[in-house]
Specification:
Number of strands: 4
Order of helices and strands: EEEHEH
Largest sheet: 4 strands, mixed
Amino acid sequence: ELNDVTSGTLSLDLWTSHRKDGILGVKFHFIDDNFEIQQRTVAIREVNENHDGAILKKYVEKVIEDIGLSEKISFVVTGSLANVVKALKDMQKEIEDAKQDNDDVSEDVMQLSDDSEDEDDDSESTNVDTESAESDESEFEAEAE
């Protein structure tokens, strides 16, 4: 069912017991073909490590990888827990950095393409010069006879 979804929102929350046991819940929200709001629980994970931003980021990335919806997530919604917000901000920065790297590569490819066209222009003028030189040679040989 989620394969047909074009985009949606991921929501997540972290519940922590008084003993510091953590449960990460993740839902995917989308609008179906009948324009009705749908939601699916896509993951419930135990978080048996420190609940800092780096650890939560790792868990969220793993869930996104497991559910195979990374290209379909338009927004991520969460409560205001500082560690969850930190994890999401770190993920956002990585995504923006990756996009910038892709833009830089695209610019380099375009520049190479432009340079290649300039070289093609140079070779055409070289061919013209070569033809002119051959023409001059023929005239010189005719005069010599």
